[in-house]
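INFO  loader      accepted 1 record
INFO  loader      residues=335
INFO  predictor   begin
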Amino acid sequence: MGNAPLPLVSFQDIIKDALPPVDWLIEPIIANGDRVVVYGQFGSLKSWLLLHLGLSIAAGQPWLSTFHIPTPQSVLYVDEEMSVRTLRRRIKRLAMGNSLESEPLSFHVLSQPGITFDAQGAATLLTGLAQQAFHPDVILIETLRRVLHGSENDAEAVSAFWKNIEPLRASGKTVIISHHMRKPYKEGEQNSRYRASGSTDILAGADSAFAIELEEDGLLRMTCVKARNAEEPKPFYVSLRDSDINGPIGMHFEGFHQDAPPKMQEHKRVLPLIREILATTPGGTIKTRDLIRQLEERGIAERTAQRALTTARKRGEVTPVRHGLWRWIPPAVAA
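INFO  predictor   done
INFO  writer      dumping tokens
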């Protein structure tokens, strides 16, 4: 602090002054300037979720058509894991699924740039961005393990990481970091709040943190395990929908935790109907729109039908023949 006076705030001022509102990046999920950790197990689709999040922020459109984004902000996505081809392909499919192909988004990526956040890492990144005349408001980083100088199990290395990225926050940036979730130590251990891999300093240094878990029926459950700026939002569910391997990808809000069980039960009820329709269709193939129409005739909502179709594909019960055309896989073959 040097010779600067201590920033004392009196009790009287606290009582007299109105509380400032939270400056939300995504209301009520993430505040501007937060350091955020999003962690999940391998295969939990957290990379898809974070790319979708970044595109929504850049577009200024409500995330998952549910969570308000007050204003579009520029986004940098730093990926140290995927190949540049895979990264570009995912972004294209997500953009198609959200009708963003023609939008001039301020969204840039760095694929495997080899960034390490040692004592000079943040300054080096900021200098490189300034040379490109790009000044992102939000930086998403995939993953902590790849950019950490040292081991994630070393409390001193993790503490140094939070100190080393302080120049990013000091320049007004929100930093969102992807991380891994360890497997349960014992059967029945389910509390995701305590399953972030590595040192406890990883979550201790964050302003907010979220656990991502992939449920058996294909839904993602996102649980806030830490929030410094406001009350922790309720856990909620997200679905990922695609029609074929090269088509658009959509991500959809499926309700808060207390709303989800009835939807999941309905979703499970639809799977036998899909099997029945495909098994009795000549040739065992059917167009997506025809399958959805037949399910709607049986009282199934389109969103539920789409989710069930995605789950059937993940289970190996159906396979895309080409865009918008599905083939049933008999049990003996699927096994």
